Amino acid sequence: MDWDDLRIFLAVARTESLSGAGRRLGLDASTVGRRIARLEGAVGAALFLKTPQGYQLTAEGARLIPPAEAAEQAAAAASEAVRVEAGITGQLRIGAPDGCANYLLPQVARDLCKAHPGLEVQIVALPRVVNLTRREADMAIAVSPPDAGRLTVQRLADYRLHLAAHRDYLAEHPPLTSLQALKDHRMISYIPDMIFDRELDYLSATGVETAQISSNSVAVQMQALRAGAGVGIVHDFALPFAPGVTRVLTDSISLTRSFWLIRHADDRGSRRLTLLAEALAQGVRAEIHRLEGQLPTPD
Fold first, then answer.
1. What integer pLDDT is reported at residue 84 of this predicted model?
2. Distance CA 168, CA 247 (A)
3. Cβ-contact 242, 222 below 8 angstroms
4. d(CA 238, CA 258)
5. β pairing state of 213-214 and 187-189
6. Closest listed residue to residue 36, CA positions, set 71, 10, 73
7. Local structure of 259: helix, strand or coil
8. DSSP letters along 72-88, please?
9. Which CATH architecture has domain 3-81?
């Protein structure tokens, strides 16, 4: 059985489409379809059932997943065995919530690429948890540890969040002397039905039920604060990127959350990914510390 056919089989299983697998592998969909047909001929069984939702594994296809993934791991190990130790090369795809992806990972990626000039870093910012089982990324950062799946989880770092607003907004609106005073202000927060993790439900900590301006993106919320649109809870590490936005009511609300690094359990034997995971963890911790350290001490 050809390993390259198994590689294509895994891509279709993970993306549930020929075109998605083709984009991932740099092949056209018709080539992917032909290779799947060739593999099905070799095993003597249909591996996928085409449905309106995409290509779904048959029972025979599901049974092929474990040996195909074992072959994938063996190929990766062989590649690592001949890789020059002077620097890590190839592609690293990191999935992360957009606050981390926007304000932390660009600097971390810069340092990784400086240390390893042959490395290509891809940052996937999604308003949901990245699916490592489908190999959407090599590793992922999340705001809660997963409770299912064949995954390994490592606590990265804690970070803090506070209410904040632009100085111009504060100058034009009633004084913010207590949480009760928030009723006289426009609130900025997440769209309630698009909160994908309970740890992101910051608005409930304020006692305010409704935000007048909302987005599923932390970056959009921050831009709204910079525009003087209202008051919102944001990451302390994002504030150095928003001149004029300052923390308020720090004695009333101070939230602490954690980032978690998640990897597929099958990747534990990959020395390359382990080294990159260690460097990523160190970089994220250092960047949170650096950015939070730039903020003035709360009154």
1. 44
2. 13
3. yes
4. 15
5. parallel
6. 10
7. strand
8. HHHHHHHHHHTS-TTS-
9. Orthogonal Bundle (1.10)
**Cα diameter, the chain:** 74
Distance of CA 239 to the CA centre of its chain: 20
pLDDT at position 94, please?
94
Count of other CB atoms within 10 angstroms of residue 220: 14
Q: How far apart are CA 299 and CA 81, in angstroms?
A: 55
The model carries a pTM of: 0.71
Query: What's the pLDDT band for 86 if we cut at 50, 70, 90?
Result: very low
Kindly report the number of other CB atoms within 10 A of residue 26's CB atom. 7
Please give the Cα distance from 219 to 103 (Å, whole number).
9
Spatial separation of the C-alpha atoms in residues 171 and 138, rounded to whole Å? 46
Domain(s) labelled CATH 1.10.10.10 in the chain stretch across 3-81
Spatial neighbors of 207 by CB under 8 A, at least 6 apart, are 179, 180, 182
Residues in a beta bridge with 232? 164, 188
Please return the burial class of 43, using the count of CB atoms within 10 Å of its CB with bins 0-12, 13-18 and 19+. Answer: middle
Q: Distance between CA atoms of 74 and 6, rounded to whole angstroms?
A: 12
* Domain over 90-157+258-292 is classified CATH 3.40.190.10: yes
Question: Which residue reads 């591996």 in tokens?
Answer: 47
- The strand pairing partners of 75, in sequence order, are none
What is the amino acid identity at position 176? L
Enumerate the β-bridge partners of residue 51: 54
Q: What is the pLDDT of residue 76?
A: 67
| CA nearest to 245, candidates 265, 220, 223, 261 | 223
Mean pLDDT of 82-101: 78
Task: Report the distance separating Cα 262 and Cα 142, nearest Å.
Answer: 7
One of 3.40.190.10, 3.90.1110.10, 3.60.120.10, 1.10.10.10 is the CATH number of 158-256, namely: 3.40.190.10
